[in-house]
């Protein structure tokens, strides 16, 4: 295959990746976007195999590697539950980071194979690219591992605040810059591995202070990091497709992180430096009546069956209980009774961007019934019932009314403006932000304490009686 043809095919794959991102921006076109992405990746891999593989033996090794990796990926894809998608995404990000470190190490020890010079005489430009790629890759690797452990419940979702963490992080960042300069000037393998070590530690220290409420930002941020790491690999390998793909993923991840932060009225820097969780909110209202009105599935069934409009607000509690199918059954039952049903999605509900949209799509909820915060918030005042299923922090009126609250200013779903708010939750405990939800104690709120899936199924049964 000629170099011109390879460049053209890489360009085609890049265009398909752009179309994939465009398609994934909306649920109705997401399947088509996935197809574009898969075709683009197939073209990129095929072109690399035919153009860049130096020998038949190398070709066989790459094909074997593809078969092993593809087989493992297929098994994971078939077995993974939709509710475990956030931790799967974090785990995949870690692999991209690790790949960047491995490619950089290979380039350092065998530069002739990469066309970047000889051992001990590597081009300065290649060393800079290699240094940045390995640093971002190592940070992505350990940061993604910590995110996976938090999302999978193997590590507490609460922030782990180390003493003088900002000073330590700043010191490591400065040390990385110094080490990169030393690597470029000395080409020392020892310096290279010091860069790897410092970056691995920094990746851990960046993520462990971040609380569960900021996990959507963390996932999109790590997505961005993995993109830049891939772009670094692309420069090291001289592969146009990797450079284009990495830049697309890196920039789109950064934009998504900004959108997530805007959805929480947070600055990106504040998330990285601390994150929600662990703060103790001042009492919003010392005179507030802390009495809770607790109801049953029968009460909820009666209220919804006699409503004209019900807005359902899914949250992470729905994901944990895997209640999305029961929720769809409830909505169908309500629509059969002539009740108008809509779903309200907060941009940071769940543990990754679009988490609730993915789960509702799995339950085959019609796309035209699902609305983002800014499109539906004004409708809560006309709703008879807001059915909140595990969405704690994103419905907390303290974000709107209490200036002393750590989440003050974060846009929320105005479920308290509905005539009745039915709130499904296991207990009255705080959410991932670590603060009390004043919605529980409002006059129009009825708490339905219990497992979200079972409670929803019980409501459906009660409507049949």
Structural account:
- The structure is a single chain.
- 59% of the residues lie in helices and 8% in strands.
- It is an alpha/beta fold and 465 residues long.
- The chain has three domains: 1-71; 101-277, no CATH class; 297-464, TPP-binding domain (Rossmann fold), CATH 3.40.50.1220.
- α1 runs parallel beside α10 (240-263), α6 (124-151) packs parallel to α8 (189-207) and α14 (324-336) runs parallel beside α18.
- The strands form two sheets. A six-stranded parallel beta sheet has the order 5-4-3-6-7-8. A two-stranded antiparallel ribbon has the order 1-2.
- Mean pLDDT is 87; it is low at 277-286.
Key features of this structure:
465 residues, alpha/beta, Rossmann fold, 6-stranded parallel beta sheet, two-stranded antiparallel sheet, DHS-like_NAD/FAD-binding_dom, EC 7.1.1.1
